[in-house]
């Protein structure tokens, strides 16, 4: 399969997650370790999030502790040997995990821009997309990201160091995952369920969710389709990077997010001016925007939908052959720092800031080199697959008794995939199977007799208003009443 075909598949066809193995060996970043990064960035302070290993409740970002530390200090801490002045010293590695998560590389490596070239998404058909369109994650064993889905784009994740477990759920599992918009963050819908330790009395429908589990090893690249839920946990000390790729249907999501923002910010400002409420309700990564600003976002998105303006905006600053290049989200502060608004898809920066067509132009001139010609050696390809990639986890829901199935003739997902050239002989594309045990589950789940009554709280009321299904109805109504093209 050529890179162009892979890209086309990612952008327009792929409905299920899959893993690409053995394709990033030539990336300079494939050799990254905490030690090599520590040599490159010995002084750079990074904000780490600290969570408790034994906590039974979901650890929202709003409830975590935060410390600024350097990578050398993180390494010392991981070895349990903190020298004087290490801000991580008070947190025992037995009790805490520590995560530098969701860091824009362009900011993190601002003093060392050449590092950004170590990431080369061109491998997957996205020429010019490198570290400046990527996000960086460095975590200790046990660190995790709560279950959520990203509202914009699809996602490519490269595992560079250590192993990470991903549990993915399809968008069809929305009800089973109890979506919540508190804490509020544009572009993320969180699940109320503590995936590691689900409380079935509180979330009985979680039984019906169908997890797709995979353990990523160094060198693996995971494709996460649009709006798939994911719960991600480091099994070792890990380094990974990812890039969110904009999709044509993101305009619809922008309208939903603009509506959610309007309601969330309005309610929050009415509820309380106090900092403490904002701290619980607003994710630390987010900023509250004013009523008039939020109305402006809605009007701008509607205008965009009506005039297909995102398409022309996108086309104006990208190589016409590569309309997909765009970062899924970028925070206000990075925009304030003078970075390109053109790369952002978040309402708070992209729509409010006109795109400068010159900003990204140089990047997308890069031609698609090394095109790989197609031939058809599917069988050979499948026989070389390493089954260990879908490896079982210790504990429940093991998948060790099922042989992983791969992209092959019987796969509805990728029927048309063929191996393409000698260069790809050792490269694997691996389908992730649903976790059958959790699906059938009679002996896995306890019977739930006492379903808990939810208390009637402000949070529950607001959450019902902000529920994605409700936002969907409002947006459809708006689109119809404004006679806007759907
Ligand atoms: O690696 C993680 O902890 C989470 C990654 C994630 O949420 C993403 O790439 O969308």
TrEMBL record:
Transmembrane segments: none annotated. GO terms for cellular component: cytoplasm. Keywords: Cytoplasm. Its main location: cytoplasm. The keyword Amino-acid biosynthesis does not apply. InterPro entries: Cupin_8, JmjC_dom. It comes from the Eukaryota. Residues 98-260 form the JmjC domain. PROSITE patterns: JMJC. It is found in: Cytoplasm. The keyword Cytoplasm applies. May play a role in cellular stress response. This is JmjC domain-containing protein. It comes from Paralvinella palmiformis.
